[in-house]
Amino acid sequence: MIRRVKVPIVIGSGVAGLSTALGLHESIVVSAGALGSTWWAQGGIAAAVGGDDRPDLHARDTMAVSGGIAVRDAVDMLTEGGPAAIDRLRELGARFDTAPTGDIALGREAGHQRRRIIHAEGDRTGYEVMRTLTEAVLGQPAIETLEGWRALDLVRVGQRVVGIVVADPHGDREIIESPAVILATGGIGRLYSHTTNPPGVTGDGLAMAARVGVRLADLEFVQFHPTALDSGLDPMPLLTEALRGEGAHLVDSEGGRFMIPYHPDVELAPRDVVARAIFWQLDRGLGAFLDARVVDNFADRFPTVFRVAQDAGLDPRTDLLPVSPAAHYYMGGIDADTNGRTSLAGLWAVGEVASTGVHGANRLASNSLLEGLVFGALVANDVAQAFELPADISEFRSGPAFDLPLTGSGIEEVRALMWERVGLVRTGPGLWDARNRLLELDNELRSNLAGRVAADVARLVIAAALRRSESRGGHYRADYPETDLFQANRNLVEPISIDD
Prior knowledge:
Strand content: 15-25%
Radius of gyration: 22 Å
Number of strands: 20
Helix content: 25-40%
Number of domains: 3
Distance between the termini: 37 Å
Low-confidence stretches: none
Strand order of the largest sheet: 7-3-2-11-18
């Protein structure tokens, strides 16, 4: 069945997807679950709104942690758009924490040299942003929402994307033909056994783009959040970076602070530095804990963390909190400019699925929500001006998206493999071992669509990690521990040659 529409399709309903949909005014939003995956974001929104701050200072901090390969124009677009993005949210009804003066209260997180982190109810920022955007989208009659629908593939005719293959809530498949498709599908965190990401974040959009030959970028760069609560849950509860911004320390089993030798900013060092330090602590059996007992009014200021700690039988006011790094954010993705344009006409990408170069090899804390807000508006504006009615879709030939079951076995083996071999500390032999093991699992994985996505994305990440024979940002090779000046560039990939 083919359904033809004359409005853009937004795939994904996190902050990037909903921001784009609001900017378009008229669109279709395809959401695999209920609207909004950014509910999970505890951290704040970074924006230069303080009296002692400026967008160029925010840009400087963003560049400083990026591993030397962030794209300056993209960084400037992000940071200069920050204050206006916050104003738009407040106009839509967002309620942020305020200081006694009535001004927005500002916190500090790792890598920031100014207090510029905006929060809502301490650690419920994602919830507040998504509440605001979801209510705004549902209040727009011209925005159609397909909740419980899953995008399976892109439809390409010639050099243009002209639609998508979807499964409805009952699993029935159909094609929706559209003049513009915007991917806002998020990252790949669920490909790792240790992750803060909710179910479904397995790189579906990245895999769909790769299958139709869209250019990709920086696929080796995975960010691991340093402090997930190690309580046996999946996903692992996040212990927001704002805790360290308010004085919480990382300590070993003896209570000693272990970050001091690693970086002058100790607990507020860039995320990749802190995450690897914790990884090495755990690998040596020395223990890693967050000591947040110094944080005043904990239950009121960080209610989400307080609740998840209590659910694990811990009281952060009196107990040390066991931590572990966990896959959290993906700097790699679909190569896109700041307007979201990709290498194929008719296809845009925004948010975590896009790789604009704004984060380089390592993302600055609390820049991700800002990215979705700022670039969502830019993408919407570009799509509104650029889309055209699609070509004849009759040339399209259906593939596995119509034939395979949606789910199956093999995913948990991939998650364990990615954590062990393609995680925080990588080696050439370990990466080759992961690649070979994936080949052994290939038949099982490709018997279902979820396995197919996992196999495709894992192979792309592994291949990119093998290509970069140095350490930079979120990519650390124990066999190449130094940063190589001659590899200070983005890694662009044409999917048709990924196995060359």
